[in-house]
């Protein structure tokens, strides 16, 4: 069974420069970040004032999507691009409804793996694991995930790609998603969220410029480009919509958050 990579003397954790997962934690109001991350987060906020809302909308969608997937009968989840732990964790939401749920958290960032022990606390009836792998290497990712022995290969899996693909350049993003979905059995699901500039194009160009200066290229995509990730799948509910409009809950949907503030498309779809 492959062992998750841990930090060591020769591991560069990027603690002297802004880090995407730590900036996201800062925007969510967390505590796992440094002054350099706060400065970068503040620059992003100056470029697009509601970006903290965008982060929180993404987080809220992820929790709603996992709960709905459990109620649709899914008991196996692979969360790619997990990021730093931020309670409640996605597996907490799943196992609160169905304690037997199994969760594999995946990230390619050594810093995330260092903090990932918190992701291993689940219910005794279920199982939670984490592994280091890259979404742009689908075969390597599935080799690492299946090597853990957590998943039943014959049962449906929910593939979670929340807030990840806008960090993957053109030419790799759509191909990677198609290849990630390919080995999953019928009845599996894709849950996806993606930043967009459709509602505030000038501001999101500025956000992309800030990210590029910090060495993290950002590729926001329009509705048609994001919808293409779901080609061949059967949409759940409203399909691909601004994230706060996907099965909204009181205090989080339209009327509280605007499409511009969300600036995020989200959807869930089933593999036939």
Protein architecture, described:
The protein is α/β, with parallel strands linked by helices. The protein is built from ten helices and eight strands. Strands 1, 2, 3, 4, 5, 6, 7 and 8 form an eight-stranded mixed β-sheet that branches. Strand 2, helix 5 and strand 3 (127-132) form a beta-alpha-beta unit. The relative contact order is 0.15.
Q: Quick check: average pLDDT?
A: 90
What's the tally of helices?
A: 10
* Largest β sheet strand count, sense and barrel closure: 8 strands, mixed
Globular, elongated, flat, extended or rod-shaped: what is the shape? globular
* Structural classification: alpha/beta
Distance between the termini: 31 Å
Beta-sheet strand percentage?
A: 5-15%
Number of strands: 8
- Would you list the SSEs in sequence order as H and E? HHHEHEHEHEHEHHEEHE
What would you call the quaternary organization?
single chain
Helix content: 25-40%
Can you tell me the residue ranges where pLDDT is under 50 for at least 5 consecutive residues?
1-10
> What Rg, in angstroms, do the CA atoms define?
18 Å
